[in-house]
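Expect sequence, tokenised fold; for instance:
***
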Amino acid sequence: MNEIKWGIIGCGDVTEVKSGPAFNKVPNSSLVAVMRRDAEKAADYAKRHGVPKWYSDATQLINDPEVNAIYIATPPLQHEAYTIEALAAGKPVYVEKPMALNAEAAQRMVNAANNYGVKLSVAHYRREQPLFLKVKSLLENNIIGDIRFVDLKMLQPQKSKLIAKADYNWRMDPSIAGGGLFHDLAPHQLDLMLYFFGAVKKFSGIPLKQDRQQQVDDLVNGHILFENGVLFNGTWCFTVAEGAQLDTCDIYGAKGKISFPMFGHQIKLTLNGKEEQFDFLPLAHVEQPMIEKVVEYFLNKSGNPCSGEEALKTMELLDGFTSKNQKQ
């Protein structure tokens, strides 16, 4: 295999700019087919993006002989079934985050990849973005000394731009998404903590439904103690007042502090009371750096940028913070 010829299952909004166009922009990669259950919308997507084929049935796309890799961008409910079907067909899979509805489903996906001997990568794409690679470099070079603790806050009002304006937002349906905006946004943040700090010793969380009209937790507080002694505290709240929104991650070390947002473009480094700022340009397609690494992995040119086993650990944290299978 010299070129990855992608088929997308679930060519919805997330693929319009964030990921879809990138498949034709990285070396040795092309997008040859898309699928959506609504045939009219699938055809429209294919026409607008210059994709040769479209389907309204996922099995047909998976079995298309020209398609040799599958990108799954449906809501989380369908991730497990489509991933396992594609792996059974011998086609490597790149699946969106969160990896699945829960850790049990994620484990079955990992087992299937191992049993079939087919590659599986998960779209924790911030790992390959320049801003977060810079944070990782600062940590690895011990710029702020031994790490003491991490404080993360993701606070948003109910009318936040992060919340879809559609009449029906599937992200707020736990049977489809696993659990609200926490399950939608926290995987990015928790995966980065694992990427930065490694193995977890113990974790726990407190979830609350403060908006009684919703089925999902809108306030979650979670703690992680890493094996290396780093302590993490995170707070996610999606019912704060307008103007009170906050997106910050502060990493405190013996010599200074690294501060950055999850949805922004600046790092602030504080050493000896002096602040240095690193600015990064917005990416046209936020998943493009990750897709490039996944293509290299599928072509046996590099390692897996985010394995199913790594993403499973993030799912365990999500479940643990929301009182499912907490690891004490």
